[in-house]
Hints:
Blueprint: E1 3-9, H1 14-24, E2 36-44, H2 50-62, E3 67-76, E4 83-90, H3 92-102, E5 118-123, H4 127-136, E6 141-146, E7 148-155, E8 159-167
Amino acid sequence: MPTIGxxxxxxxxxxxxxQEYRVALGDDTARHIPTHITLVPPTEVADEAMPVIEKHLSxxxxxxxxxxxxxxxxxxxxPVSPVVFIGVxxxxxxxxxxxxxxxxxxxxxxxxxxxxxxxxxAHHLGEEQLDRAFEELxxxxxxxxxDAFWLYVHDxxxxxxxxxxxxxxx
Length: 170
């Protein structure tokens, strides 16, 4: 059974720079995790469900217009979860509405926490590295247009691979 995820990709140069930052901080798994804003967390699905899921994602994308995302500053989910992230400060409601649409039908998955759009920059690291990321990226700012989201499939050897994009408003 494949494990999939659905996310908004953070485009380059910001996406690559934040991924490299995570790796330099000591998060070796980040080499295989493209920088993103999660819409559907990692979810196991049956192989035969993939065509239905792709049809669902196409329909979901058609229901939403492109929007802008601005990222600024850091936040954390500690002590609940060992995560430091860059905050979404523009486009929050658009991300929430898109996630709500995508997480229906064949992707109506249960989630452990309420949806909070963000870009993870440190995860499952020691307190020192988490504090460092929180402080070093506190002044971070970037923005980009969102006109699509991606279906990712996890590969045991190569990590998360984007397999198909879904254009908004088409």
